[in-house]
Design a protein that fits this description.
The chain has helices at 10-21, 24-36, 40-68, 72-79, 86-118, 127-138, 141-160, 163-172, 174-190, 195-203, 212-225, 232-237, 246-274, 285-295, 300-334, 338-357, 364-367, 376-413, 423-446. The protein is mainly alpha-helical. Bound molecules: phenylalanine. Phenylalanine (PHE) binds next to helix 1, helix 2, helix 11 and helix 15.
């Protein structure tokens, strides 16, 4: 165990787990998905998914990881050796590499935007100017691949240096700062003329917008944002000592993560509607509106550059947690040295990321895939970020509840006298609600 590394303290763990959860999922993906799915109603369903599905699965993953002190593949093997259950772990490893591949492209956008704002490229621009800068930026193939490479290299470097030293240090200081900046931006956005229309889009549910896709996207977003369904939280749990309370850690992570996402919506939608911009334009949404907000603030560009820097750091604490999944697998199961595992898996994610990097116009084929009529990045985001994560979460919930059994999981959760008042509710959620609901949403999508 000592050789696997461990979190320095419970606070270190919460910060690292929250660092994993809080990232582009909250500030980039949540607003663009909300915008595409009609606004307030999506937000309601999303919050429902976090409580009913996210929290129970989060506890399931943490307990499975800490009970076995293993990576996702090893954890299933340890509990049910000789069965096929460890393929759930393999699915997680694959999903991790695929999510990292496009996530690092968006993270590269944040890095690019640090320099663009610093260089004053958005100075004095209104929405059409910002849109032009953005589309020429994502349409530059070499730049996009370069930024992807830079982000993967940063990630692989930190992961190659190991658990406590690598992961913990980066999460500690910058998150509170990011939160503060988000609050300031929210105030600016809410006081723009015409902001009320955005608020009503964000807060007043329109039940006419309801359809099956909204449920899949809300559920997928909940798992994505909480880093669930691919074994990230399982792996992070495996580095946690028995003394720490899984319940309060999980609650902290969920509350922090959800507040940041909700906050991001309070920045994006009032500003969008005040500029008469469409909320459903997809993955480019926040990159098209944020510079407009900055240009309406005194000293906005310096502020903007700092914001994108913090966003890049938030993305980095997430990418290291994604890469940690395949790396922990290779270290534990294949006895690879950490360095080799980190660089090799980073390399694989880079290669798979190239189509996403070219999908913003760098190569026509990937900007609009034949037959599907969608760009590669959006496709990858939905396929791995919604569907694969949901399948992973379904399998984890089913495994913990019906194969490992809730009694064993609860024993782990309440180890060393930790209290869990809602134990019975959790057991019901993980046994019945999670598997059935996830399955129903998935099946309804493909029928
Ligand atoms: N939760 C992260 C975010 O919201 C992304 C992530 C997904 C991290 C899956 C780890 C695993 O940005």
């Amino acid at each position: 165990m000592a050789s696997r590394g461990n979190w320095g303290s419970k606070l270190g763990f919460i910060l690292a787990a929250a660092g994993s959860a809080v990232g582009l999922g909250n500030i980039w993906r949540f607003p663009y998905t909300t915008g595409r799915n009609g606004g307030a109603l999506f937000v309601l369903i999303y919050i429902g998914c976090v409580i009913v599905l996210g929290l129970p699965v989060l506890l399931a993953e943490l307990s499975l990881g800490r009970a076995t002190y293993r990576n996702p593949v090893g954890a299933f093997r340890a509990i049910r050796p000789g069965t096929k259950w460890h393929f759930t772990g393999y699915l997680g490893v694959l999903t991790a590499v695929m999510i990292l591949s496009f996530y690092a492209v968006i993270a590269g956008w944040t890095v690019g935007y640090i320099f663009k704002t610093l260089a004053g490229q958005f100075n004095g621009l209104e929405k059409s100017g910002v849109a032009a800068v953005f589309s020429s930026f994502i349409g530059s193939p070499w730049l996009q691949v370069l930024l992807l490479a830079i982000f993967i290299i940063l990630t692989a470097y930190i992961v190659s240096r190991g658990v406590a030293a690598g992961l913990e240090k980066f999460s500690k200081l910058l998150m509170p700062l990011l939160f503060l900046i988000l609050v300031l931006l929210m105030v600016r956005s809410l006081t723009l003329p015409g902001a009320e229309k955005g608020l009503s889009f964000y807060l007043k549910p329109d039940f006419a917008a309801l359809n099956g896709r909204v449920f899949l996207e809300a559920m997928g977003q909940a798992f994505f944002s909480l880093s669930l369904g691919l074994g990230t939280m399982l792996t992070y749990g495996s580095y946690l000592g028995k003394k720490e309370s899984l319940v309060s850690s999980a609650a902290w992570v969920a509350v922090l993560d959800t507040s940041v996402a909700i906050l991001a919506g309070f920045i994006i939608f009032p500003a969008l509607f005040s500029q008469n911009m469409a909320p459903d334009q997809g993955p480019g949404l926040v990159f098209a509106i944020l510079p407009v907000i900055f240009s309406h603030m005194p000293g906005g560009m310096a502020f903007g550059a700092f914001f994108f820097l913090l966003l890049a750091v938030a993305a980095l604490t997430s990418t290291i947690s994604i890469l940690e999944v395949p790396v922990a697998f290779l270290i534990d199961e294949k006895k690879w040295p950490r360095r080799k595992a980190a660089w090799l898996m980073g390399g694989v994610a880079f290669l798979f990321g190239i189509p996403s990097a070219l999908s913003g116009g760098g190569m026509a084929f990937f900007s609009r895939l034949p037959l599907l009529h969608v760009d590669f990045l959006t496709l990858w985001d939905k396929a791995w970020g919604n569907v694969a994560l949901s399948v992973g979460a379904l399998l984890v919930a089913f495994f913990v509840a019906h194969v490992w059994k809730t009694a064993n999981a609860l024993q782990e959760i309440t180890a060393e006298g930790a209290r869990f008042r809602l134990a019975r509710l959790w057991a019901i959620a993980i046994k019945y609600v999670c598997p059935l609901l996830i399955l129903a949403v998935l099946v309804s999508q493909f029928l």
